[in-house]
Design goal:
single chain; Arc Repressor Mutant, subunit A; 34% helix; alpha/beta; four-stranded mixed β-sheet; Restriction Endonuclease; six-stranded mixed β-sheet; 24% strand; binds zinc ion; 15 strands
Amino acid sequence: MLLKERKIPNNLQLRRYLKPRIAFTEGQLKKLLTDEKGFEGECKFDELIARSPASTYLQLNDLFLEWRNTTFQIDSSLITPHKVYLFDVKNYEGEFYIEGNRWYYSSGYEIKNPILQLQRSESLLTPLIQSLGINLPIESKIVFVNPNFTLFQANRLLPIILPTQVNSLLKSFGSVSMKSSGHLVKSAKELALLHNDKTPFDNMHIPEYAYESLNKGVSCCGCGSLAVHVNGRVLMCKRCRAIEKLHTGIMRTVEEHRVLFPKRFLTVSEAIEWCRLDLNKLRMQKILKEHLVMVEGGKSTYYRFE
Ligand SMILES: [Zn+2]
């Protein structure tokens, strides 16, 4: 039973929108790639869980929580009548090794010890769920989901699931019935409500941007480029030939405008400029009117999402 689904993190969404519209530095691009990969790994794990008996457990994905003024994040958690599972999902690729308490990439570059983060989350989650009346043992593990991940010199007792062990982890789950666990379901729902959608990471790694300097246009639903033009009732990409309905593409693009510039007013002229399509005022107005709420103000009439 899915109680809290995974959404694309705000700062990743923002960067996806910005990518075709602004030049990223090499560092920003690298970080974007890493974050995309991390998110992809988490989604992959969600799919594996959905196809396993663990889909009968109470599932809470991607929680950002706070306990006594300390915040922490949980990639994936499963609650059964007997146990709480806490998973930190890593999509690392390549060869890594451990020396003592320290983790290194094969090149010798040190990475953060992921186990410390896992232990921190567990130590904060324990009193938090107890305060909600969930007095169950927590089993926490780091799950490495990428088949191209290798870890040398790892102690067998470490709380990690290697790619070759993911299948046996999934097989170890037995399905449960939550029918007689009404109290637990209620507490788990309360836990889901404690999730804070605004995280301090929201503004991290986002290139500085201003409306005036961003490239305008509709980004292609296939290749992401701004080489999209109107062709009757559809949008067509000059680069990859992908086709999208005109309304869908425009609404997608004005949604980007809303997220990137929450304080700007979407007038017809601004929508025309932002979408940079060969579209006259009347046609754009008709589309905006159909999908958004019109706020009248003469020349400054603008449109907002419901
Ligand atoms: Zn394209």
